[in-house]
Structure prediction request, 374 residues.
Amino acid sequence: DWLEHIGSWSANHPTHAPITLFLDIKDDLTDNRHTSEGSLAALNLLLDNTLGGRLFTPEDLGAQWPTIDAMRGKILAVLSGAGEVNSRLAYIRDQGSAPAVAMNDSGQIIEVHKSESTDTLWYWTGQQQADGTVLWQHHGRFDNGREPAIALNNAGWFVEVHTSENQEDLWFWTGYVDTSGDLVFVGHEKFDSGRYPSIRFSDRDDNSLLEIHQSDSNANQNWDWELVLNTSTGELTWGDHGTTNSARHDTDSTTSGAGSISVHTGEDSAGADILTYETSAGVPRRIRYLQRAFVDTFPGESEILEEASSFRGYEHGDSSRASTWRGRGGLARIFEFQASDIDPSEMPPQFPSTDEPFEQWYTTWWETFSSTTP
Prediction:
């Protein structure tokens, strides 16, 4: 309701100075497994639906901040919440192991992976853009298990296969990409024993598939299954099955009429087990949410948060460090800002967030600050 109120006021006052909206996260958003449960993807959708084209996003920011006049009518959303560092980290990077990917001829993408720390399976959906980058849309947990693989046809139907989390059993999921770009899961059963399953559509305009996996008792022997997906029911019809000399399908890369994509996990400035992708454009990038909001940071947090944003929050009484951060080109906020935080020898914070906005000391200081600071 408040976002709608701010968006409506902004639309009725199109020349207003930029509004900076801090969203103080009070609950862990990373355990909301799907968009429908209130994930960070849901937060992005909420910002878009209520603020729309008035949002000024990290993608809009160039090498330096625009002038206030250039940002009139704009709203900046900033994810804050010192106690919810995991939620803020999850907005700018994801971690995992054994990533696998599928892409159809229209550039729809599904990535699946195992958690970096538990035997849980997660997915991302995305759409390849004209410049070769991927707009990652939805993210969620869908099962327990290991060694996932995925196939996707041109009608948006998928078949996912994986190994059980505690036995060498093979399971499948079927489903489709809905109009929002999220996944709808339909069929789910055990289909064999083995390790390292892999799967591909024989033709992305058809519903026939070939699955190849390693034997559970002989690492030098592969087995295959021919199968057909029923897109009316999500059921699979299993056909010929036997040993094969064919290699397993590549699971971490694929090529379609839209180009090619590969997925990886490794270490970068964001930490270990960071999920990245690379398309025909040839530039490795992180798999992460669309950056509709900036991220607030706090002293002593990880370097990846500092790299991600120039916003930084300080407690009352920490005006010296806030001044230093602003002097380095950062955006400083002091929450519970009080009269004792005012020091004429220091650069004042851009966001003096006081609980006493109508007290005389604050209005007098603010009028002086506003008239002497560019």
